Amino acid sequence: MKINIKYPLVVLLALSSLFLKAQQEGHRELQELYQEVLHPTDPLLNGREYGYYFQPKVSTPLIPGEPYPPASVLIRNRLFTDVMLLYDTYKDLVVYYNPGNLRHGLPASIIVNKQLIEEFTLNLPSGQARFKYLTFPEDQEDLLRNGYYEIVSEGACKFIIKHSALKKIQDGAVIYKYKPERYLISSGTAYRIKGKKSLLEALSDRASDVKQYLKRTKIQVGSADKEQLQGVLDYYTILKQSGE
Amino acid sequence: MKTLANIRMKFVLHKAVCLLCLAMLCGYPGFSQDSLQQFKESLVLRTDRDLYVVGEEVWMKVYKLDANDGNADNLSKVVYIELLNQAGYPVNQLKVHVPDRSGSTGLTLSDTLSSGNYLLRAYTSWMKNYPAEDFAFRTISVINPFRSMENIGPGSPDPDTRSRDANADPGVPDQKSLHLDITFDSTRYSTRDRVKASVLARDASGNPVEADLSVSIVKSGLISDPREGIMRQVPSGESKEPREPARYLPELEGVVLSGRISNTNTEEPIGNEDIMLSIVGKAARCQIYKSNSEGEFNFNLDDTGVLELVIQPVDSAVNDYYVELETDFLNAFDHPLPGPFYLDTSRLRALNQGIINMQIENIYKPYRQGITSNHAAAGETDFYGEAEYHIQMSDYISLNNLREVIKEIVPAVSLRIRYGESFLWMDNGIAEQQFYKGPLVLVDGVPFDDVDQILNINIRELESIEVINLKYILDGRLFEGIIHFMTIEGKMAGMEFKQRVFRQAYSALSERFSFQSPGYSSDTLKNSPLADFRNTLYWNPGLQTRGEGSVSFEFYTSDEKGEYTLILEGRSADGRSGIIYKKLRVQ
Fold first, then answer.
1. CATH number for the domain formed by residue range(s) B41-241+331-376+514-586
2. E strand or H helix at A169
3. Chain A neighbors of B124, CB-CB under 8 A
4. What is the CATH number of domain B389-507?
5. CB pairs under 8 A between A and B
6. Chain segment B80-103, per-residue pLDDT in tens
7. How many C-beta neighbours within 10 Å does residue B280 have?
């Protein structure tokens, strides 16, 4: 006896998948409901007013510059996109800029509490940059201080950039000179990467191979951008994984 | 050739499948509001054994599952565990923080408990929207040798009672079983000897499985015979419908503290009002929530231990109010309660030895590294982070009173008098944008606007003062600066609020317990005179097999010879579960 139950079975399978989807949807909706009920106010509205201690027309320690491209921030496991976030490279602060706050009697620029921020992403001229607040053990404090760092890669060899600024007097005016610093953290030790020598020191267990690679690819470490340096680190990781 | 019977059979089957589809279609939850309640959580609760003596710890592990498919899940982060007596009255309650898919805790059995059967039940806030029958349960038996055992009957355990130990573990079909195996490094062990064990977790086809395991090794007389079924998985039965439209929120961070604020005179809810929650202590941990039209508010609390909460409207003009907090634990017991306890006379000797062991342990445990209770690292930082000015009183010469301290030492703050009352004025240093409202004044983390009373604080009781002389936004509410007075004791120096406020002790998340057994790795430790008579030789709720499906662990035997039973159980993320028992002899 051959029974044609093909079509009802197809419907049955489709309904099963709908059930599964509904469960997942329920999970997500519960999370959204929780956030709406427990944290109804804009979480970025937590912090003190940001005071402009510089003359924007002369020099600014804030990145990115105008027109402020949209940024995103992760707070309490919730991603907020299209927000105007700025990073003060001199004072190591995250600034939430929203002129709409003024309508509610609140300051337009607020320093967001660092306890709240899990990570944030800025659109910089050099590309997208993901930042996290990092803390370091006491023995590394001479080289690295607690603060926000751009996380370029988090593999066996961690590549981070401190976007900082130096305050200088130039022609009688105070200027903030943007000065990013690149660091590698390998096996718990941090190295500041200024040039070829310091890079080879950080990757000392594969120094000769890395040196050959730099020569072959004509990468000048001192002036290399983060993608080029990341390329070197990827090569180093492959070397380590293959055990060469 | 088609017979009439064949055609009829085909029609019937066709109809059956169509009806099944129709039934599913009717039950299809959709994606809107209904799908919220479609997600159903369940828990599985495990204990290190099932027979205890008062004064001992019950070690527990809880797994969080998606009730619809039995897979591991991680929605709620707080699990409520209650120990109910035979009358259904909770004799111990815990709020356990479980940030991952499973978690563990311990519970000390008070010596005020009578001997008998007790029911452990576990649930999440979201599960409170469903009948209590769907919670996770486990029956344990407790012996109190210091009280009369009149409610204990001699004989064997009643099989009917045992079979009611529904464990709220969704049924485990054979194809979803987890095959566990354990091997020891030796067949016999002496006292204070090191035991090494390796665990393998595989599926029905023999493939390695990543599993979340717990292992307990206990005196054989202190667990029921596995054949009796007490440690056996029992399906929870059919899924129940929610009690009513979802009333309780899932807790995705810490405990959700819900309540309602109403007017004392009219009993009308105070809606759309900024309500501030603060906690008496050295750190300022304030939160603001705008009450809804029903006067309801919700706060998230991820602190540990007993807290002294203060809940008050931010606007001090609202002073005729009262606050009612929702209870965290559910007062519904629509499930079977534990049956009577029958003392198994064949285990009397083992029970006697267990009672003696408990007493020896309670004498020696404080003198050795052992079971400890740790305070979880609470968020002890102020909500405002680092202050602009921090004045540590011990850094300055002693002045006569706080008035002098504010005048001489505290920057950016001055004391003024208006209509006969003192108030604090904050200078933000910007002449054209001076503050005109007062700052948020905190004493030991709590907003307190009676400045004259603050000025009467004995400065020997004052530890430090912090000042933020900038506009500060807390949960969307603007304050023109913050000044925080912190006393040495952190208890508000006995100050009284001018108006009635809600101030109440509240048990937040339970303190974390972790099991630690003594180690005898060196001769000095091995020859230690401290007696070791653990009834639970080893408990590890955090074993995880990785890609290879294996994991190993080690522990030391105690001073007591005899037979022990190892109970190894676990679950995989895709809902496989398994349990095995193995004997271990110490000679």
1. 2.60.40.1940
2. strand A157-170
3. none
4. 2.170.130.10
5. 128
6. 999 999 888 999 999 999 999 999
7. 17
